[in-house]
Amino acid sequence: MILAKRTKPSRLEQPANNQKKIYSATADAHADIKKALEKAGKEHKRLLLVFGANWCYDCRVLDLAFERDDIAPLIEANYEVVHVDVGEGDKNQDLMKQYDVPMERGIPAIAVLDSTGKLLYSQKNGEFEKARALGPEDLLKFLTKWKAEKG
């Protein structure tokens, strides 16, 4: 008789505490995006806009995933990340509209821009809303698909 051990499907790590402030309530998201675009242009990177809030559990899951040993180097080499605080759904809604990310589909929500500010991808169907259900391979596949071509 052969025994097989069942393993849980691979999922992103769940945060142990809720103390980290990922989204700044006082940040000027418009200025942060402008600054990140300038840097992205110089470094031939893409811009990763992450819309979310500190109260959002799945936003914390996604942020923790960005620190993983297999994901962090991919982000560092290819993206400038800007966390855009949406508050209770009452902040930076103009940016969500500008980058075609519907608030009603949930957060965290992601938009990808090229270094000139052109929108390449916007989350329309809540793809990251349930980040806790994603596996690391899902996030790696997404980040690899949208990274800039290095010339």
Structure characteristics:
alpha+beta; 151 residues; 4 strands; Glutaredoxin
Q: How many DSSP helices?
A: 5
CATH domain class name:
Alpha Beta
Overall radius of gyration: 16 Å
Number of DSSP strand runs: 4
Share of residues in strands:
15-25%
Which stretches are poorly predicted, pLDDT < 50 over at least 5 residues? none
Which term fits the overall shape? globular
Mean pLDDT: 90
Roughly how many Å apart are the termini?
A: 55 Å
Q: Which secondary-structure class do the elements indicate?
A: alpha+beta
Specify the biggest β-sheet.
4 strands, mixed
Could you explain how this protein is built, in words?
The chain is α+β, with helices and mostly antiparallel strands. The protein has one domain: Glutaredoxin (3-Layer(aba) Sandwich), CATH 3.40.30. The protein has five helices and four strands, in the order αβααβαββα. A four-stranded mixed β-sheet has the order 2-1-3-4. β3 and β4 form a beta hairpin. The longest helix is centred in the N-terminal third of the chain and has 15 residues. The N and C termini lie far apart (55 Å).
